[in-house]
Amino acid sequence: MEPQLIVSLSGLLGMTVTLMVIGITWLKRKPLNSDFNQDCKVFYIRPEIRFLGLFLAIISITVMTLVVFLIPVEEFKPSDWVMAFIFGIFIGGFGSISGVMLFIIRAKVNKHGVLGYSALGIPRFMAWSDLNLIEFSGGMQSYKLIGCSGHIYVSTLIEKKTEFIALLKQNILPEKFEIDLKSHLNSNDCPEKFMSKKHFESMVKHAPTASILLTFFITFSFLFLPPYAYALFISALAGIMLIGSATARYIWPNLPSYWLIILDFLSIMSMSILSNLAWSKYTLYLESQNSIDNYTQVFIMLQTLGTTMLFVFLTLITVKKMYLTKKIAKHK
């Protein structure tokens, strides 16, 4: 079998397996009661976000096709089909599914309860009587409705968000709103600041787990790419710069908006420049070792990005410890 065909089939297999797993999970979901859609209020995702999701799905499939099917493979290496399989899972599979979900998801509310979605995008119904707590999920940027047998998410990107909150208040007791969310809804605070704060707190909360997973991914990638300390060091600096503005927002929440805009711009620009520099240095290093090909270049990008994100989370862990230690010392 031709090397090009083996690699192409590997990428297609990765995408197909992902789509089949999500599809089977979707088909096995619990059916709704037949009377749920009666007098049901539907909340769609905002139009610009829906079409952005459709664009993401198209781009994911296009990139998958260009990289896996059209990049020439002259000599077969085991690492090529492994890389193509992984690429098919994440780009062709999860990338396209994420875009489609942004396009089709919607929340429904009626006298019986709320229809939301699981973290994997599976529709789930929750009755008002089962709902125990509503909180804001910073990581998902959604309202998280927690019940007796699980939880569902309703995106904050829905249209008529105020009307949705009003329906929640009509059907559940005030004490079922989480304290931070309740105080935000009862105030005139900027929604973007609240969402940014909760997103940062969610990243801090999950930083240890994310750091472990990224460390495993980067270590695993060394089986396919020889480590180059200089490029990895530059990628680490990129991660520290990327999280700089978000850290400043959290530690100094009252910074003027123009300072926040400047910090965001500098943070993103620094990360972009350093990431490109790391990628180019890594490529030159592998070319000098005569171990560069088209697939290797793709996974150089993934490895440097993984290193960048690892140091994003390590910086969050460090800042959290320093910030909390400072607060405890000040309290004493």
Q: Count the strands?
A: 7
Count of folded domains: 2
C-alpha end-to-end distance: 71 Å
Uncertain stretches of 5 or more adjacent residues: none
Helix tally?
10
Task: Report helical residue fraction.
Answer: 55-70%
Rg calc: 23 Å
Structural class of the helices, strands and pairings?
alpha+beta
Beta-strand percentage?
Answer: 5-15%
Average pLDDT: 81
What is the string of helix and strand elements? HEHHEEEEEEHHHHHHH
What does this structure look like?
The longest helix is centred in the last third of the chain and has 38 residues. The relative contact order is 0.10. The chain folds into two domains: 183 residues, no CATH class; 141 residues, no CATH class. It has 332 residues and is of the alpha+beta class. Helix 6 packs across helix 10, helix 8 runs antiparallel to helix 9 and helix 9 packs across helix 10. The strands form two sheets. Strands 1-2-3-4 form a four-stranded antiparallel sheet, covered by helices on one side.
